[in-house]
Design a protein that fits this description.
209 residues; mainly alpha; 2 domains; 0% strand
Length: 209
């Protein structure tokens, strides 16, 4: 995914680049996209796990530095481990389950897309967020009691629908994304795009876990 995004970023930041270079960058994007699609299709779970672990670890590191001006390697490694299993393996398997159970929504009605987005928000999201909030303190040595307190204290803020200024983080980020992903993205591309958005969401998780 980074190989795909880099040429696009260069083209946007430097619109005066010669047409030949832009064409070359476009070709690189196409080849990288095709190569990634092949790998993600053949090694769906492994690709999802690697994408989630690497991207969320990097985001956790950035979040710590922005918040504290320093980084805790234990916390970053814990985030990588939890993300690899929860968002990567479990998340990818959950997406596969939705498609196998409800059908491929990229070729179906808007009702099926909405049903998948609702199922993800009400079923998988609370479980995944609880896992992060519990496992991160546990793996960093805070203990079971502190890990349980983390879930009780922070899960409602992440999940509850709010109309005030502290809007629902989960809903505001993931509901629009899910509506787009379930209607336009094939299954093998969803873990990578989810991992990219998760990298942003990780910053908010890192501030409370």
């Amino acid at each position: 995914m980074l190989l795909i995004l880099l040429p696009l970023t260069v083209a946007v930041l430097h619109p005066s680049l010669p047409t030949a270079r832009l064409a070359h960058a476009h070709a690189l994007v196409g080849r990288a996209r095709d190569a990634y699609s092949v790998v993600a299709t053949k090694h769906y779970l492994a690709t999802a796990a690697a994408s989630s672990g690497i991207l969320r670890a990097g985001a956790d590191l950035a979040g710590q530095c922005a918040r504290d001006g320093a980084a805790d390697p234990t916390h970053t490694l814990s985030m990588a481990a939890v993300a690899t299993v929860v968002s990567g393996l479990c998340g990818a398997q959950w997406m596969r389950h939705l498609d196998s159970t409800l059908g491929d929504s990229t070729a179906e009605s808007a009702g099926l897309v909405a049903a998948k987005a609702f199922a993800d928000y009400t079923c998988f999201a609370p479980c995944a967020n609880s896992a992060y909030l519990f496992l991160l303190p546990l793996l960093t040595g805070a203990g079971v009691e502190a890990a349980t307190t983390s879930v009780v204290a922070h899960l409602p803020f992440l999940m509850q629908a709010r109309i005030d200024r502290r809007r629902n983080l989960e809903f505001m980020l993931w509901m629009p994304y899910n509506l787009i992903a379930f209607s336009h993205l094939p299954l093998h591309l969803r873990p990578a795009t989810s991992a990219l958005l998760s990298a942003l969401f990780t910053v908010s998780i890192a501030t409370v876990a």
